[in-house]
Amino acid sequence: MIRTLPNSKPYSIGFKIYVSLFFVFLFAPLAVTCVLAFNDSNFPSLPWNGFSLDWFISNTKERLGIFNDEDNLKSIWVSVQTAFFVSISAVVVGTLGAFLFERENFKYKQFLYFLALTPLVIPGVILGISLLLSVNSAGMFFEDNFNLDFEILRPSFWLVVVGQFAFITTFVLLVVSARLKKFDDSLEEAALNLGASKLEAIRFIILPFLKPAILGAGAVAFLMSFENFNTTLFLIGSETTLPVNLYLQVRDGSTPVINAISFLLIIGTSILALLNLFFTKKTS
Amino acid sequence: MKSYTKLGFYVFLVPILMWLFLLIVIPQIELLIMSLRFENDAGDMVWSFENYKEFFVNEIYWYTFMRTALYAIIVTFLTFIVTFPIAFYITKIVNKKYSAFLIILLLLPFWVSELVRVYGWTILLRESGVINYFLQNLGLTTRGIEMLYNDASMIMGLVYTSMLFMVVPLISSLEGMDDSYIEAASDLGASRLTIFFKIVIPYCASGIVSGSIVVFMLTLGNYLTPNLMGGKNSLWFTEQIYNEFIASLNWNQGAAFGFLLLILSSLIIWAGLKISKQNLAKALS
Hints:
The complex is a heterodimer of chains A (284) and B (285).
Chain A: H1 9-36, H2 54-57, H3 70-103, H4 109-117, H5 124-146, H6 157-181, H7 185-193, H8 198-227, H9 232-235, H10 242-251, H11 257-283
Helix pairs in contact in A: 1-11, 3-6, 3-8, 3-10, 6-8, 7-8, 8-11
Chain B: H1 6-35, E1 37-39, E2 45-47, H2 50-57, H3 59-93, H4 96-107, H5 114-125, H6 130-137, H7 151-175, H8 179-187, H9 192-203, H10 205-220, H11 224-229, H12 237-247, H13 251-275, H14 280-284
Antiparallel strand pairs in B: 1-2
Helix pairs in contact in B: 1-13, 2-13, 3-4, 3-7, 3-10, 7-10, 8-9, 10-13, 12-13
């Protein structure tokens, strides 16, 4: 049954076969996508016509490689900017939230904590449309009554940032809270006894202790934002993010340039994931 | 529990209140309000249940709604069946040396965008896809078989997309389980099935519940996978919402659909928590 008990041969072999098949299932779509990015063909399919870097560097009308594809490059840049602002603000507010829920006592705390968790159980589509409806109503109100026009109250870059922030913050809150729970209060008391102010105690004692959780949550927040589709779809203005842009291309018929982008994304996210893992391992 | 000064407390509290009320609570209320507004024949916006009536009268909406709920439950169950042996193998069977490596390997694909993963499946499965190419070269078929755009491929895609959110809580609850429980049961003569149902499953109940909640919610709200792998026949409720917002520009109708979806997901999650005697805060953290 488990490693310390004697196991029958069919049992262990059956498990090994299942696990191997599972990993094939897990990696097949990614492997195929990567391999076909280098096929010398106009379609993302077999037969294999030989190795080619056309879908990365070529600049002809027929084959526009990703490094010359301004439309896709621009959407990558938009996604990077979005993810940057979302992860910074989610980390700040999520960490404040962790302090609030772990170290303060106040009326309605349980209710507020429950509210803070709800973004995890509200489908992303609903978050997107409800925010769109709200800002639309608010925008009409300001325009009718004060003749004011705010860009953030229309589908736009900043509205996407706000919409993603709304649910990614919950994630940061959970990760940082889990770490803060393990903090030994006597460390802070010692600092206070030795004459540190409360702010100094937070700055020099608690924040360094939380650092791995904050960095880890920040990295995951960045990726969640970079990949978000459901909420973003409804809030997007003229600046399309990469997932939405890719979706439109896949829906309308695909070229191997999507494989090339996917290849770069797979490599990029794997490096980020491994770095994140390496740092959280090292510090904890 | 250490409390900071009054000022410090408000520094923590105010941003949280703004986040929760401006971005979560008020928008959900607005969603409800908008769903109850309807443009009558005179062109005026009035309070009305017309948008909800439309949902109940028009069979296609009703059918899509039930179908989405049912499939989301099936997907959640299948995801559990597929990932449980993996979690069990990694935490209890394989040599401890390899389990960390296997976990990294397991998580890696899920860092990559859902769109990329679904795209990978479409180029594998479609009529001119990689699997068909091999089938034809092996002489198993002469013509390409369309393996995309049916319910089976859609469910497979949804299970594939959600596996991570099931396997992580399963692994963490199995990791916390002392092996000696299983050893003791085995010494006392319990069969594998008994051990599994009487010891392992009850022990990981909290992990199973939290994984199921997240998987269910993500599946219910998924748009990409049903759209790209289920094709025109996918009949997924989020597509109806999308259509009302983007294609028909009937936002009030879309709001009613959205609110119904919100109620459905809350109800099923609430029922799941009640049946398993868990609470949301415990299940999610």
